[in-house]
């Protein structure tokens, strides 16, 4: 029996399966700190090491995917994630787990980087912005799924069983993609007109990095991703330290992650209706600045009122902040310097996102360790949001020149 899910939605589901590996650590951190002696700063690096490959190789993998095939690259990433996760379940020390997290990062990069270009090939041009808005929701969906399922699986079979379960499910997702997503076609005709020479990919990379557009979307994504992963990644720990049970802390954080998809999907629809991208980015970063600060900062209120206000701020931070990635995935396609540099532009943006995700959690963890609590963590997220707001100024100028 053939699957009836549209292939572009299956690509999104594959991204969700990959994103669950990024988020699977959040619910396991309290257990890992006891089982493997993981410190708070090591926990920050465990959260961020999955971004190491993307931070170093994003643009190059984007270039390679065009030659290897977008679907083939996606499937290879899912299989690598599966193998690394299954091996991770056998780790007996924090350094071993860190090494396998870095390998998972390569799998995550291979799985997530070609997806926007693949979706672009699968849907009509009129639906690209909306479809990419759905793709922008893959991270919050995967994060929410991991936060909801993780506590129950860990309670039943330990953190090792959680790693093995995700490894098996990701392998199954790879099989679904092979069956239901159309196979890679021959390189498009514009490939014949690519710069000649022994290494045409180098010419495409130079064109990408000499243009301002790829740099802007990469920097904006770094400003967004650094604060989002830092807040969502540590919320289960924050809530458990405040006395919530693991399952309740995971469910509360899952909702924070899940509402992010609303902003992503809304961004795609608003862009299709003509709302300027810079406006959406400013709204997203502005609410993130305020919401992240309130979620962590000391408040004059006490008890349930303070907890409710902080949680509402975290929800607003994530939901309205979702406008940012939903907008940036569409901008990456528009601001690529040429048709043959879309994948490298998306890869460079992914590289910026990974830099932010690699830096944000350890920075927040180090600050929390230094001051003995989370009260100043909102200053880090607000600073990142402020950087994003500043970057919207040259972006608006760049878009205005392109429209003139």
Automatic annotation (TrEMBL):
It holds the Pfam family MFS_1. It is found in: Cell membrane. InterPro entries: MFS, MFS_dom, MFS_Efflux_Transporters, MFS_trans_sf. The chain crosses the membrane at residues 44-65, 77-100, 106-123, 135-156, 162-181, 215-239, 245-267, 279-299, 311-333. Keywords: Cell membrane, Membrane, Transmembrane, Transmembrane helix. It is a multi-pass membrane protein. It comes from the Bacteria. Residues 7-400 form the Major facilitator superfamily (MFS) profile domain. PANTHER family: CHLORAMPHENICOL EFFLUX PUMP RV0191, PURINE EFFLUX PUMP PBUE. This is MFS transporter.
């Amino acid at each position: 029996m053939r699957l009836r899910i549209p292939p572009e939605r299956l690509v999104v589901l594959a991204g969700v399966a990959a994103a669950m590996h990024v988020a699977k650590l959040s619910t396991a951190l309290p257990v890992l700190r006891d089982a493997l002696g993981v410190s708070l700063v090591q926990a920050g690096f465990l959260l961020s090491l999955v971004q190491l490959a993307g931070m170093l190789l994003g643009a190059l993998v984007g270039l390679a995917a065009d030659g290897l095939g977008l679907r083939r690259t996606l499937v290879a990433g899912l299989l690598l994630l599966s193998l690394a996760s299954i091996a991770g379940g056998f780790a007996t020390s924090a350094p071993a787990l860190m090494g396998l997290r870095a390998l998972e990062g390569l799998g995550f990069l291979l799985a997530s980087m070609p997806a926007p270009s693949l979706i672009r090939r699968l849907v009509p041009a009129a639906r690209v912005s909306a479809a990419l808005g759905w793709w922008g929701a893959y991270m919050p969906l995967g994060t929410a799924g991991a936060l909801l399922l993780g506590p129950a699986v860990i309670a039943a079979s330990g953190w090792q069983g959680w790693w093995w379960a995700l490894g098996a499910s990701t392998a199954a997702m790879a099989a679904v993609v092979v069956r239901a997503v159309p196979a890679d076609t021959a390189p498009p005709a514009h490939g014949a007109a690519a710069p000649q020479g022994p290494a045409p990919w180098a010419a495409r990379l130079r064109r990408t990095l000499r243009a301002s557009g790829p740099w802007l979307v990469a920097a904006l994504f770094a400003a967004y991703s650094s604060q989002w992963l830092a807040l969502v990644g540590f919320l289960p720990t924050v809530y458990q330290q405040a006395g919530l049970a693991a399952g309740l802390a995971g469910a509360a954080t899952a909702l924070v992650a899940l509402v992010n998809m609303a902003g992503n999907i809304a961004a795609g629809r608003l862009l299709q209706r003509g709302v300027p991208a810079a406006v959406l980015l400013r709204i997203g970063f502005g609410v993130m600045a305020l919401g992240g600060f309130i979620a962590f900062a000391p408040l004059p209120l006490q008890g349930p009122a303070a907890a409710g206000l902080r949680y509402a701020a975290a929800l607003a931070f994530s939901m309205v902040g979702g406008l940012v990635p939903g907008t940036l995935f569409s901008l990456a396609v528009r601001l690529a310097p040429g048709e043959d540099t879309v994948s490298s532009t998306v890869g460079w943006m992914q590289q910026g996102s990974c830099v932010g995700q690699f830096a944000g959690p350890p920075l927040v963890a180090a600050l929390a360790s230094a001051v003995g609590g989370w009260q100043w963590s909102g200053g880090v997220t607000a600073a990142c949001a402020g950087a994003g707001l500043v970057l919207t100024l040259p972006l608006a100028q760049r878009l205005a020149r392109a429209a003139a």
